[in-house]
Amino acid sequence: MCFFILNIYSDSSYTALKYLKDTEVNIGNVLIITGDFNIRDHLWDLLFPHHSTISDNLFIIADSFNLSLSNPTNPCPTRYSDMLREVNSILDLMFLCSGSPELDSHCILPENRLSSDHAPLTIKILIIEEVIQSSKFTILPKSDQEKVFIEEVILNFKSLNTNNIDDDIKLDFVIKWIGCIIDHAWKNNAKKSRISKHSKQ
User: Fold this and answer.
1) What whole-number distance in Å separates Cα of residue 81 and Cα of residue 85?
2) What ranges do the domains of the chain cover?
3) Which of 101, 91, 82, 70 is nearest to 5 (CA)?
4) Does domain 4-122 fall into CATH 3.60.10.10?
5) Alpha-carbon distance 64 to 66, whole Å?
6) What is the pLDDT of residues 12-41, one digit of tens each?
7) pLDDT tens digit string along 88-117?
8) Burial level of 113, CB count in 10 A (0-12/13-18/19+)?
9) Is 144 exposed, middle or buried (0-12, 13-18, 19+ CB in 10 A)?
Protein backbone atom coordinates (compact mmCIF):
# COMPACT_ATOMS: atom_id res chain seq x y z
CA MET A 1 0.00 0.00 0.00
CA CYS A 2 1.29 3.48 -0.88
CA PHE A 3 1.20 6.41 1.51
CA PHE A 4 1.67 10.08 0.73
CA ILE A 5 3.30 12.98 2.54
CA LEU A 6 2.10 16.49 1.67
CA ASN A 7 4.76 19.15 2.12
CA ILE A 8 3.03 22.53 1.93
CA TYR A 9 4.30 26.06 1.71
CA SER A 10 1.54 28.61 2.16
CA ASP A 11 2.56 32.22 1.50
CA SER A 12 1.49 35.24 3.54
CA SER A 13 -1.79 35.31 1.57
CA TYR A 14 -2.43 31.65 2.50
CA THR A 15 -2.80 30.73 -1.18
CA ALA A 16 -2.08 27.03 -0.71
CA LEU A 17 -4.53 26.65 2.18
CA LYS A 18 -7.29 28.45 0.31
CA TYR A 19 -6.72 26.20 -2.68
CA LEU A 20 -6.84 23.03 -0.59
CA LYS A 21 -9.95 24.15 1.25
CA ASP A 22 -11.85 25.15 -1.90
CA THR A 23 -10.67 22.24 -4.07
CA GLU A 24 -11.62 18.60 -3.65
CA VAL A 25 -8.21 16.98 -3.49
CA ASN A 26 -8.46 13.35 -4.54
CA ILE A 27 -5.50 11.93 -2.65
CA GLY A 28 -5.94 8.87 -0.46
CA ASN A 29 -3.70 7.43 2.26
CA VAL A 30 -2.13 10.73 3.28
CA LEU A 31 0.15 9.89 6.21
CA ILE A 32 1.62 13.30 7.00
CA ILE A 33 0.93 16.94 6.19
CA THR A 34 3.78 19.26 7.07
CA GLY A 35 5.31 22.54 6.00
CA ASP A 36 5.57 26.27 6.56
CA PHE A 37 1.99 27.49 6.94
CA ASN A 38 2.87 31.12 7.78
CA ILE A 39 0.26 31.23 10.56
CA ARG A 40 0.86 32.47 14.05
CA ASP A 41 -1.62 31.17 16.59
CA HIS A 42 -1.70 30.62 20.34
CA LEU A 43 -2.87 27.05 19.68
CA TRP A 44 0.74 26.06 18.98
CA ASP A 45 2.68 29.15 20.06
CA LEU A 46 1.95 30.03 23.69
CA LEU A 47 3.92 33.27 23.38
CA PHE A 48 1.48 34.52 20.75
CA PRO A 49 -1.77 35.79 22.34
CA HIS A 50 -4.20 35.57 19.39
CA HIS A 51 -6.15 33.02 17.39
CA SER A 52 -6.26 33.17 13.59
CA THR A 53 -9.36 32.15 11.63
CA ILE A 54 -6.99 30.81 8.98
CA SER A 55 -6.05 28.14 11.51
CA ASP A 56 -9.63 26.87 11.37
CA ASN A 57 -9.23 26.26 7.63
CA LEU A 58 -5.98 24.42 8.29
CA PHE A 59 -7.69 22.10 10.78
CA ILE A 60 -10.57 21.49 8.34
CA ILE A 61 -8.06 20.45 5.67
CA ALA A 62 -6.16 18.20 8.07
CA ASP A 63 -9.37 16.63 9.37
CA SER A 64 -10.45 15.79 5.82
CA PHE A 65 -7.38 13.53 5.65
CA ASN A 66 -8.03 12.18 9.18
CA LEU A 67 -4.92 13.92 10.49
CA SER A 68 -4.37 15.75 13.78
CA LEU A 69 -1.90 18.42 14.86
CA SER A 70 1.26 16.78 16.19
CA ASN A 71 2.92 17.99 19.37
CA PRO A 72 6.72 18.21 19.11
CA THR A 73 8.76 16.28 21.65
CA ASN A 74 10.88 19.41 22.16
CA PRO A 75 8.63 22.51 21.84
CA CYS A 76 10.63 25.43 20.49
CA PRO A 77 10.47 28.02 17.67
CA THR A 78 10.68 26.80 14.08
CA ARG A 79 11.30 30.18 12.45
CA TYR A 80 14.28 32.27 13.64
CA SER A 81 14.52 35.99 12.92
CA ASP A 82 17.79 37.79 12.33
CA MET A 83 16.15 41.16 12.89
CA LEU A 84 16.47 42.96 16.20
CA ARG A 85 13.33 43.03 18.37
CA GLU A 86 11.57 40.51 16.16
CA VAL A 87 10.79 37.40 18.15
CA ASN A 88 11.25 33.87 16.93
CA SER A 89 8.01 32.07 16.10
CA ILE A 90 6.36 28.77 15.26
CA LEU A 91 5.24 28.64 11.64
CA ASP A 92 6.19 25.07 10.69
CA LEU A 93 3.76 22.37 11.76
CA MET A 94 3.12 18.67 11.28
CA PHE A 95 -0.18 16.81 11.12
CA LEU A 96 -0.16 13.06 11.70
CA CYS A 97 -2.60 10.18 11.45
CA SER A 98 -5.22 10.48 14.19
CA GLY A 99 -4.95 7.87 16.92
CA SER A 100 -1.76 6.30 15.57
CA PRO A 101 0.47 4.93 18.36
CA GLU A 102 3.50 4.83 16.01
CA LEU A 103 3.15 8.35 14.57
CA ASP A 104 2.12 10.57 17.45
CA SER A 105 4.83 13.25 17.66
CA HIS A 106 7.69 14.86 15.81
CA CYS A 107 10.95 16.60 16.70
CA ILE A 108 12.25 20.09 15.87
CA LEU A 109 15.97 20.41 15.08
CA PRO A 110 16.95 24.10 15.44
CA GLU A 111 20.65 23.17 15.55
CA ASN A 112 20.36 21.76 12.01
CA ARG A 113 18.91 24.81 10.30
CA LEU A 114 22.36 26.01 9.12
CA SER A 115 21.85 29.15 7.01
CA SER A 116 18.08 28.77 6.86
CA ASP A 117 15.76 30.78 9.09
CA HIS A 118 13.57 27.68 9.55
CA ALA A 119 14.36 24.64 11.68
CA PRO A 120 13.69 21.23 10.08
CA LEU A 121 10.99 18.98 11.49
CA THR A 122 11.74 15.27 11.73
CA ILE A 123 9.78 12.11 12.43
CA LYS A 124 10.75 8.45 12.59
CA ILE A 125 8.62 6.14 10.46
CA LEU A 126 9.05 2.46 11.26
CA ILE A 127 9.30 0.25 8.19
CA ILE A 128 8.28 -3.32 8.92
CA GLU A 129 10.04 -6.01 6.92
CA GLU A 130 7.58 -7.66 4.56
CA VAL A 131 7.99 -11.08 3.00
CA ILE A 132 6.69 -11.02 -0.56
CA GLN A 133 5.34 -14.39 -1.60
CA SER A 134 6.63 -15.47 -5.02
CA SER A 135 4.95 -18.85 -5.29
CA LYS A 136 1.81 -20.64 -4.18
CA PHE A 137 0.23 -24.10 -4.19
CA THR A 138 -2.85 -24.52 -6.36
CA ILE A 139 -5.24 -27.14 -7.70
CA LEU A 140 -6.61 -26.19 -11.09
CA PRO A 141 -10.40 -26.45 -11.48
CA LYS A 142 -11.61 -29.55 -13.37
CA SER A 143 -8.09 -31.01 -13.35
CA ASP A 144 -7.11 -34.59 -12.46
CA GLN A 145 -5.61 -33.23 -9.23
CA GLU A 146 -8.95 -31.67 -8.25
CA LYS A 147 -10.75 -34.95 -8.89
CA VAL A 148 -8.28 -36.94 -6.76
CA PHE A 149 -8.37 -34.25 -4.03
CA ILE A 150 -12.17 -34.44 -3.76
CA GLU A 151 -12.16 -38.25 -3.79
CA GLU A 152 -9.53 -38.35 -1.03
CA VAL A 153 -11.47 -35.89 1.14
CA ILE A 154 -14.76 -37.79 0.69
CA LEU A 155 -13.11 -41.14 1.44
CA ASN A 156 -11.60 -39.85 4.69
CA PHE A 157 -14.83 -38.09 5.67
CA LYS A 158 -16.65 -41.43 5.40
CA SER A 159 -14.20 -43.06 7.80
CA LEU A 160 -14.56 -40.23 10.33
CA ASN A 161 -16.31 -41.36 13.53
CA THR A 162 -19.01 -38.80 14.39
CA ASN A 163 -20.85 -40.96 16.93
CA ASN A 164 -21.33 -39.82 20.51
CA ILE A 165 -20.44 -36.14 19.98
CA ASP A 166 -22.05 -35.10 23.25
CA ASP A 167 -19.74 -32.34 24.53
CA ASP A 168 -17.63 -29.42 23.32
CA ILE A 169 -14.34 -31.30 23.60
CA LYS A 170 -15.44 -34.11 21.26
CA LEU A 171 -16.97 -31.62 18.82
CA ASP A 172 -13.76 -29.57 18.78
CA PHE A 173 -11.73 -32.75 18.13
CA VAL A 174 -13.91 -33.74 15.15
CA ILE A 175 -13.73 -30.23 13.67
CA LYS A 176 -9.94 -30.20 13.94
CA TRP A 177 -9.74 -33.68 12.39
CA ILE A 178 -11.85 -32.50 9.44
CA GLY A 179 -9.36 -29.68 8.95
CA CYS A 180 -6.47 -32.15 9.05
CA ILE A 181 -8.16 -34.34 6.42
CA ILE A 182 -8.60 -31.41 4.02
CA ASP A 183 -5.09 -30.09 4.70
CA HIS A 184 -3.51 -33.50 4.10
CA ALA A 185 -5.43 -34.03 0.85
CA TRP A 186 -4.43 -30.54 -0.31
CA LYS A 187 -0.74 -31.17 0.34
CA ASN A 188 -0.94 -34.49 -1.54
CA ASN A 189 -2.45 -32.97 -4.68
CA ALA A 190 -1.62 -29.25 -4.92
CA LYS A 191 1.12 -28.16 -7.30
CA LYS A 192 3.56 -25.31 -6.74
CA SER A 193 3.35 -22.42 -9.20
CA ARG A 194 4.97 -18.99 -9.48
CA ILE A 195 2.89 -15.90 -8.73
CA SER A 196 2.74 -13.45 -11.62
CA LYS A 197 0.77 -10.30 -12.40
CA HIS A 198 -1.82 -12.52 -14.10
CA SER A 199 -2.34 -14.73 -11.02
CA LYS A 200 -5.73 -14.70 -9.35
CA GLN A 201 -6.03 -14.19 -5.61
Assistant:
1) 9
2) 4-122, 135-194
3) 70
4) yes
5) 5
6) 899 999 888 888 777 778 889 999 999 999
7) 999 999 999 877 777 888 999 999 999 999
8) middle
9) exposed
